[in-house]
Write a structure and sequence with these properties.
The complex is a heterodimer of chains A (138) and B (873). Chain A has 138 residues and is of the alpha/beta class. Chain A has 5 helices and 7 strands. Chain A has a 5-stranded parallel β-sheet, sandwiched between helices. Chain B folds into 5 domains: 132 residues; 195 residues, Dna Ligase, domain 1 (2-Layer Sandwich); 103 residues, ATP-grasp fold, B domain (D-amino Acid Aminotransferase, Chain A, domain 1, 2-Layer Sandwich), CATH 3.30.470.20; 125 residues, Glucose Oxidase, domain 1, CATH 3.50.30.10; 225 residues, no CATH class. In chain B, the strands form 4 sheets. Chain B has an 8-stranded mixed β-sheet. An 8-stranded mixed β-sheet of chain B has the order 23-24-25-26-27-28-30-29, sandwiched between helices. The chains are: A alpha/beta (138), B alpha+beta (873). β7 of chain A pairs antiparallel with β1 of chain B, so a sheet runs across the interface.
Chain lengths: 138, 873
């Protein structure tokens, strides 16, 4: 026997993608990690929810009708700078990746992606969050 | 004046014979570039196909745009491959464009959700249904048909009527409005097929009712929607057919109508059977009209329906297994399989079983039977049960063993279907259990119901690659190539050291698969994905860490194996965490792959290996690859004018002249007009030359020729002499940095070596052809067998016809291919006219041992079981 699953600090995650399949598949995967998840396929609804409630992580598609992923990223950071945003897109270019990082995205993931990759991304955010909460060690 | 200009023009190099040569050279280089492009494109296409196929396993998150962009990218490349082959062969494969266009149109239709375009089979029998029919018959029938490959319980024998068949049954033509429709001939054929299937069914079940289940496919994002359940009973004496409609949930009567054949037409069929068929057909027509009326609010072009028709003789027992308990289950259970059994006399039992192997009975609800009640088979409850010493049958309507088999089958069907199901079954008088119907269960498995998040069970091992995501649990059973599938416990977890394709039959019985070695891109992983079997490939030390007999839970997506049966994870799995056939994207992907991935054209030696027979993109690129290799293998014969090109002789220091044509990167830029082997930088040619110039290959005594040999060789030598003067006696090597095409005419034999040798294994190959000789046919045959023996030792796929040998070696590591080319170089030198020395069969073995000792050490190490054999391969 090599390990047992360690308990995690639950986080609140918002997923926004106009393709329902992405929300449908990501939601239970994050729930399985112990997090609370809300999904949206309309960016206006997601923006309204972001203004209502604090989310630790926002996973957003880039190309959508209405507000696009970059706007969501901008708004999410504006509302709460400690919200971490993961941008996912099926149309990844160097420019959009650069712009996402410049605007404060935690990560930029091209579709299709492995479920494990995005779960690792969330784990890294979780780790970073714990380090921040623990404060400087020296 | 004119002479002066001509002289100046020639002096400037603007015209003349040399320029013609240069033009030919560039054309030649373009041809080889086409070949190289085919290899490169094929490689990229295969990678893209593999990525699409792996996406089925649930490892990737993807959306529709991924499918659209993948299809577009693969299609463009396939078109490019077909174009490159035609450019290489002077447009000898034009039909490829037609095949490409047909497949591309089908793929576009699938993406546009136009399944009517796919209606190529109007009335398939259940036994012929596979995943390729899913969009036409529905996923329930695909899963049901899968039971033909599983040993425990049979599916009912019947046939499906797809949308094309429905049109053929529709006298009002309602179903043809707004659709592409079909020719009247096509509809007539469909009608004929329905008659044939009815004939087949009533042969076995004369005058029995037929059940007809109508379903809508892909309606409102639901993969399956039941529309109606009918019983059709023909009365030949009265020339009438009764149509009984039953409620799908409760099976209670909804309506009953009788139709007389005279209402429609005078029966034209003779004999009772003919009349019965005509009456049943009339019943089917009435059903089609009823459904058309009920669905008339929807545009018919948007409706995709199917009928499933099967016979309904009297049942002895029937029942249903729900793979998840519904709220009103008699046990108040939240987990397990709920089985209900009904006897024709109204007796009814209920059972609760475990969802994992060995599917133990957890609870039962068996009412008191009337005194002296006779069960199926005529026994009493107190009679001794077969195989259970001192034990009576008991009062259950079915045996526990039979229940377990039904439970195993229900769990297999749930996995294939990707969602909880109600599996309906019947036992007929022939004592065979048959599954008659699969119905999706509306069970709301909210993740919030799960109390322990995240999973806290101990992990036994983790790592490797996801073959198919999902969760499977059961007892561990170690398997290998020698495992008899019959020994494998149904619902067990198969743990193997190596992912061998021989394990395929085991997969059909397993609940999950774990292998220590092997990759998620391999054959076994593809099979696991076909069966939606949770699987992990390449999990280190799996066999050691998962001892036989212990219960484990395999999470394919997380690549973890947990100790015990982790109900929590199994419930997660059932909540559609993974990609399942319930997702539209999954079904779309599977439909697309049907026209992209399968390889039907395998053997280039058969007559079926033609452009017209390409049915998938994989067929097209494989056909192009094989045709391109064949073109180059015969290149110098088909392009005799090559002899006029400017070539350079190699300074080999051997009694043979090889001329070299460098098409790019084959010779050192500083090479002289007569380069030596050290100036050759073409990787495959260099390896070949090393073998060719090896002094050991030339240490063979000169053959002695008899008059018989010379006379036997006369027709051949005359044939060679009849060849174009340019090609006679020319040994020409067309070389590139990673390519060689070598034609050798040594004495009286002719050989071709065509090879690609780079770092990318998937593009590497060697093609070898050898024919001819001076000796009599018997001795030439011996030499052919000797060469074939050498090639076989290097694992070439070899065929011999008389003295013609063709051999291929593909997908090899660069080092292996380099060693093979070295050996071929040595073989070329060592076999010059050696046919004349092959005086007896024993010479073959003697020469092979000698050659293997000197030139095949790379292929002999560790390939044999004994030391003695190792010495000679």
């Amino acid at each position: 026997m090599i390990a047992t699953n360690e308990a995690v600090e639950p986080m609140r995650i918002l997923i926004l993608d106009d393709e329902p399949i992405v929300c449908k598949r990501l939601k239970p995967a994050f729930q399985k990690m112990g997090h609370t998840v809300e999904t949206f396929t309309e960016s206006t609804e997601a923006l309204a929810r972001l203004r209502e409630l604090h989310f630790d992580i926002v996973v957003t598609d880039l190309k959508m009708e209405g507000a696009d992923g970059i706007q969501i990223l901008h708004e999410a950071k504006d509302i709460s700078s400690d919200t971490q945003v993961i941008v996912i897109t099926g149309f990844a270019t160097l420019e959009t990746a650069k712009e996402s990082y410049r605007k404060g995205a935690f990560d930029f993931v091209a579709k299709p992606f492995k479920l494990r990759d995005i779960l690792d991304c969330v784990k890294r955010i979780e780790q970073k969050r714990q380090e921040t909460l623990a404060g400087p060690t020296s | 004046m004119a002479d002066g200009i001509r002289h100046w023009w020639r002096r400037m190099g603007g015209a003349g014979r040399d320029t013609a040569k240069e033009v030919s050279f560039w054309r030649l280089q373009a041809l080889f570039n086409n070949f190289k492009r085919i290899l490169l494109l094929n490689n990229t296409i295969l990678e893209e196909m593999a990525k699409m196929e792996r996406a089925l396993g649930g490892e990737y998150i993807f959306d529709r745009s991924f499918l659209e962009s993948s299809v577009s990218s693969i299609a463009n490349r396939v078109h490019h491959v077909a174009y490159s082959l035609n450019a290489l062969t002077g447009n000898r494969h034009i039909p490829l464009y037609d095949r490409y266009q047909e497949i591309r149109t089908l793929l576009d239709d699938i993406l546009a959700n136009n399944v009517h375009a796919l209606a190529d089979e109007a009335v398939p029998p259940l036994s012929s249904i596979g995943w390729e029919h899913e969009s036409l018959v529905g996923m329930d029938l695909v899963c049901l048909a899968e039971l033909f490959y599983h040993p425990w319980v049979d599916p009912v024998d019947g046939f499906a009527v797809t949308i094309d068949g429905i049109r053929a049954l529709d006298p009002m033509q309602s179903w043809s409005i707004g659709t592409r429709g079909g020719s009247s001939k096509r509809l007539e054929e469909a009608r004929g097929a329905i008659i044939d299937h009815l004939h087949h069914l009533i042969e076995d079940y004369p005058q029995e009712p037929m059940v007809v289940v109508a379903t809508r496919i892909d309606a409102d994002d639901e993969p399956l929607q039941e529309v109606g359940y009918f019983r059709v009973q023909a009365d030949v004496q009265r020339s009438a057919v009764t149509l009984t409609r039953v409620d799908l949930e409760t099976m209670t009567l909804l309506s009953q109508d009788e139709f007389s054949l005279a209402d429609r037409r005078q029966g034209s069929s003779s004999g009772e059977e003919g009349k019965e068929i005509e009456l049943l057909l009339h019943g089917l027509e009435q059903i089609v009209q009823k459904i058309a009326l009920e669905l008339s609010h929807i545009p018919y072009s948007a409706i995709n329906c199917a009928l499933f028709v099967y016979p309904q003789p009297p049942f002895v027992l029937k029942g249903a297994i729900q793979t998840r308990p519904l709220g009103d289950n008699p046990f108040g259970a939240v987990d397990g399989l709920v089985a209900k059994v009904f006897a024709p006399d109204g007796q009814e039992d209920a059972y609760l079983l475990r969802r994992t192997s060995p599917f133990d009975l957890l609870q039962s609800s068996i009412p008191t039977r009337p005194s002296g009640y006779r069960f199926t088979g005529g026994y009493l409850a107190t009679d001794l049960a077969k195989g259970r010493r001192h034990l009576g049958h008991g009062t259950g309507l079915v045996e526990p063993g039979q229940l377990k088999k039904l439970a195993e089958t229900a769990m297999l069907l749930e996995r294939l279907y990707g969602a909880p199901l109600e599996v309906r079954w019947q036992l007929w008088e022939d004592k065979i259990f048959r599954i008659t119907r699969l119905r999706p269960l509306k069970v709301d498995l909210e993740l919030t119901d799960i109390d322990e998040v995240p999973v806290s069970a101990p992990v036994l091992c983790r790592g490797g690659q996801t073959g198919q995501s999902g969760v499977g649990a059961g007892p561990v059973f170690h398997v290998d190539e020698q495992t008899d599938p019959q020994d494998f416990p149904p619902g067990g977890v198969a743990v193997a050291r190596v992912a061998s394709p021989h394990l395929t039959p085991v997969l059909q019985r397993a609940a999950a698969l774990v292998t220590e070695f092997g990759s998620a891109a391999g054959h076994l992983a593809t099979v696991a994905r076909e069966l939606r079997l949770p699987s992990i490939f390449g999990l280190p030390a799996a066999v050691e860490q998962l001892p036989e007999g212990i219960d484990v839970t395999v999470d394919g997506g997380e690549t973890r194996v947990y100790e015990g049966i982790v109900e929590q994870l199994l419930r997660f799995d059932a909540s559609s965490l993974d990609l399942t056939p319930q997702h539209r994207e999954y079904r779309l992907l599977r439909r697309l792959l049907r026209f992209i991935q399968p390889l039907h054209l395998v053997n280039p030696e058969t007559q079926e290996f033609t452009a017209e027979n390409c049915r998938t993109f994989h067929d097209i690129i494989h056909f192009c690859h094989e045709s391109a290799v064949d073109e180059l293998a015969h290149f110098q014969e088909r392009h005799p004018a090559l002899g006029t090109l400017r070539t350079r002789s190699l300074a080999l220091g051997l009694p043979m002249d090889i001329r070299v044509l460098d098409v790019g990167g084959g010779l050192d830029a500083e090479s002289t007009s007569m380069p030596g082997p050290e100036q050759v930088i073409s990787v495959p040619f260099r390896a070949f030359l090393e073998g060719l110039v090896d002094p050991r290959a030339w240490e063979i005594e000169a053959p002695s020729l008899g008059m018989r040999d010379i006379l036997a060789g006369m027709p051949r030598s005359m044939g060679l002499l009849a060849a174009p003067a340019d090609t006679l006696g020319v040994n020409l090597a067309i070389i590139g940095s990673e390519y060689i095409n070598l034609s050798l005419r040594m004495g009286y034999h002719f050989s071709v070596i065509d090879a690609y040798l780079g770092e990318d294994i998937s593009r590497n190959y060697v093609y070898f052809r050898f024919v001819g000789g001076l000796a009599d046919p018997e001795r030439r045959g011996r030499r052919a067998r000797f060469i074939a023996r050498v090639l076989a030792a290097m694992e070439f796929k070899t065929s011999i016809k008389g003295d013609l040998i063709t051999a291929r070696l593909k997908l090899m590591e660069p080092d292996v291919l380099r060693s093979a080319l070295f050996a071929l170089g040595a073989l070329t030198a060592a076999t010059r006219q050696q046919d004349t020395n092959m005086r007896s069969e024993s010479d073959i073995e003697r020469r092979f041992v000698q050659f293997a000792d000197q030139f095949l050490p790379a292929f002999c190490q560790g390939s044999s079981d004994t030391e003695e054999e190792d010495e000679r391969c």
